[in-house]
Design brief:
Order of helices and strands: HHHHEEHHHHHHHH
Strand order of the largest sheet: 1-2
Strand content: under 5%
CATH topology of the largest domain: Four Helix Bundle (Hemerythrin (Met), subunit A)
Keywords: DNA-binding, Transcription, Transcription regulation
Largest sheet: 2 strands, antiparallel
Distance between the termini: 35 Å
Number of domains: 2
Protein name: FadR family transcriptional regulator
Shape: elongated
Organism: Novosphingobium piscinae
Number of strands: 2
CATH architecture of the largest domain: Up-down Bundle
GO molecular function: DNA binding; DNA-binding transcription factor activity
């Protein structure tokens, strides 16, 4: 089967990096979920476009990508740029290259799905129901237990940080980047308040999951529900040192967030 042309998947993005390759022009700032990639070098932009195509299912597992010679000639870019892009994808578990067999898309079980780039690429398109389910299951397994521990171990400074994050969420709302950043800070601080280094090591992962599910919720709903009351209940339980109440509040908060995206009982995920 003839490999798909990336131009048929993301012509606007592909056009940007192709023009940059021909003219040296920097990628313009623009819209989209996250345009921090505007400063990426050429191979990073190619990796991003291919990564989005892979994680959104446009390149299925087992699909053989174009050879570097064919891809480079078809898109008027250097073979080195394509080769470096493939190395990025291989490091994230999305592809594997073998002599004479070419570069194939790997099974999703091998993907580093919690890698920040892979998460971002997943939510650039329409994430699968399985991807949404997996992230919320991860949160439901980790965060309620973490909240219970944090309620009895948090410091005064950490409680103040969580309180400040709540104020910022109220001031900016979760529809804004500043409000979303405050939401991430709230959840990150709570994990740090557990005093458990193993849990703390998951802070960046949980923060990224919170960020992208929040962005997705805002994108899907014209009038998103305000989650601030549930965050305040959680904060109050942590402030009171009530571990069981904190666990229950976090469980309820996550279940409501899931219902915002996929209105069915949490047990159905």
């Amino acid at each position: 089967m003839e490999p798909l042309d990336i131009g048929g998947i993301a012509p606007t993005l592909r056009g940007e990096w192709k023009e940059r390759a021909l003219t040296g022009r920097k990628q313009p700032a623009g819209g989209g979920i996250d345009r921090s990639d505007k400063s990426l070098r050429l191979h990073g932009s190619i990796a991003r476009d291919l990564g989005i195509a892979i994680v959104t299912g446009l390149y299925p597992p087992g699909h053989v990508l174009s050879s570097e010679v064919d891809f480079a000639e078809r898109n008027n870019i250097s073979r080195t740029a394509y080769r470096e892009a493939i190395r990025i994808l291989a490091a994230k578990g999305l592809v594997e290259s073998r002599p004479k067999a070419g570069t194939k898309i790997t099974d999703p079980s091998r993907w580093h799905i919690l890698d920040p780039d892979v998460l971002a690429w997943t939510f650039e398109g329409e994430p699968s129901p399985e991807a949404i389910r997996d992230l919320f299951e991860l949160r439901l397994i980790i965060e309620p237990a973490a909240a219970e521990r944090a309620a009895t171990r948090r410091s005064g400074a950490q409680l103040a940080q969580m309180g400040h994050a709540l104020e910022e969420m109220a001031r900016h709302t979760l529809a804004s980047p500043l409000g979303q950043a405050a939401d991430q800070n709230f959840h990150t601080t709570l994990l740090k308040a557990t005093g458990n280094n193993a849990l703390i090591s998951l802070a960046s992962t949980i923060s990224a999951a919170v960020r992208w599910t929040t962005i997705y919720k805002q994108r899907k709903r014209k009038l998103p529900r305000d989650p601030l009351p549930e965050h305040r209940l959680l904060f109050d339980a942590v402030a009171d040192g009530d571990g069981p109440a904190a666990r229950a509040a976090m469980q309820h908060l996550i279940e409501l967030a899931l219902a915002d995206i996929n209105p069915q009982p949490a047990g159905a995920i």
